[in-house]
């Protein structure tokens, strides 16, 4: 089923006309209410009247995660707080999270786009949807939740973790759709195996997986182990959360809800727009959001756009699975991790520049994070217990900053390889 | 009375101890005593060298994590019960020991290297009870 056929199957001209009208309005709103963005426009000699259609989009300055941090917490909101009905936040590199706010209309938009993506995935109102994304400040759980309710499906708001309970409800409630990170779905499959539960004992039909990168090999493995169709969904809180784009049943790229979120592909270094079909950095402009509209937000995700007509009948442009990042961010078990976060934790503890190496592995189906820290003199003690305490303290501080577990190993100075004087910070051994 | 002990951080991997002893040997540094505290992941090498400051420089130059730690060395008669007597005195005076290692010199005496929690107090207590402390210069010469 196509939820909003008028929009999802619009012609390119109709879509551009809609995007143009909405962009003009968005630029006006931002220019008059966000001093930092107005300044950016003035610096390049732009006034809102210069933006006459979506074709003028590339004239506008970019917005980055740093802009959100500089305006922490609410400086990028374009409406008074009385209009904001919800805030979400994602983990930050320096302790400050990235905060986004939603008006009542934004929540309706969000529910609408998630509902469209659920229909793309083949979910319908008779489905029992188990939402195993985290509920809370993270947009995953609540974002999926309101989309499912809007569709009319039955929601099990179980949130993340608690694997035994997940399995029990999947069996007892006849869960037909599971929404979680792809790695967690494989973890569930393992737990099923251990508990002697066969996929035939379950009623699973569709899985909606996102919030972290995954491969086609993982897709095949998930589909065979859980006996469902594995659908890739994409979103980021700065744009809205889950529901920015999603695959349809043909699994050939994620349809972007481009009447709300206009995509561009730019060269990550020159920042120039790339020709259609080429791989570059994905940039989004929200054209209907009220709480925190955002112009040309650099996602740092590398992908390409596909404008060919899809077999499902939708004309919404598709984006390929992300091929990597144009910065050093890692996504580990759905959590965004920047090496600089680890650096600041170690710096807080030692007052001098720490040398460390982060090793990401995929053991079985779960990502694991190992951290090697060189024991420089400022860390070293002649007593075993003090070093053990140090190791535990590093582990604890990093876990509480990143929100994921880490295994810390103390190593001798100069054992971490340096290239041209600068230490290599990350080794990602996951095959993506 | 205070002895400078070298403490060296070692990862649990083969060849590291060889490297330390080779470096010190090449620098003409003799070792009087040595012990290794090990855990599953790393070890701490503790040693008494003939020239602690030079040994420190040599190991530091080779990128080892090394530090000089103050310890004391007790010379005790090499007879049954002598160690217990000394330790009883320390514990009754509330001097706590972080670690120790000991070696016999001959049939008459043994040396016990101690890292107490409070080194000044430890020395006072041992002297008060007429226990014999080894001079740093004497220990380095062994």
From TrEMBL, chain A:
Q: Catalyses which reaction?
A: 2-phenylacetate + ATP + CoA = phenylacetyl-CoA + AMP + diphosphate
EC top class named in words: ligase
Species this chain originates from: Sunxiuqinia dokdonensis
As recorded in UniProt, its EC number(s) are 6.2.1.30
List GO BP terms, alphabetically.
Answer: phenylacetate catabolic process
How does this chain assemble?
Monomer.
Pathway(s): Aromatic compound metabolism; phenylacetate degradation
List, for all copies, the residue spans of the domain called AMP-dependent synthetase/ligase: 84-284
Q: Which family does it belong to?
A: Belongs to the phenylacetyl-CoA ligase family.
InterPro entries referenced in this protein's UniProt entry, alphabetically: Adenylate-forming_Reductase (IPR051414), AMP-bd_C_sf (IPR045851), AMP-dep_Lig_C (IPR028154), AMP-dep_synth/lig_dom (IPR000873), ANL_N_sf (IPR042099), PA_CoA_ligase (IPR011880)
Q: Which GO terms describe its molecular function?
A: nucleotide binding; phenylacetate-CoA ligase activity
What is the name of this protein? Phenylacetate-coenzyme A ligase
Q: Which residues form the AMP-dependent ligase C-terminal domain?
A: 334-430
The UniProt entry, under SUPFAM superfamilies, shows: Acetyl-CoA synthetase-like
Keywords in alphabetical order, please. Answer: Ligase, Nucleotide-binding
Query: What task does this protein carry out?
Result: Catalyzes the activation of phenylacetic acid (PA) to phenylacetyl-CoA (PA-CoA).
TrEMBL record, chain B:
Its taxonomic path starts at: Bacteria, Pseudomonadati, Bacteroidota, Bacteroidia, Marinilabiliales
Q: What is this protein called?
A: Amino acid-binding protein
Q: Which InterPro entries match?
A: ACT-like_dom_sf (IPR045865), ACT_dom_pair (IPR045739)
Quote the PANTHER family the UniProt record gives. Answer: ACETOLACTATE SYNTHASE, SMALL SUBUNIT
**What SUPFAM superfamilies does the database record attribute to this sequence?**
ACT-like (SSF55021)
Q: Where is the ACT domain?
A: 1-141
- Do you know which CDD domains this protein is assigned to? ACT_Bt0572_1, ACT_Bt0572_2
Q: Which domain of life is it from?
A: Bacteria
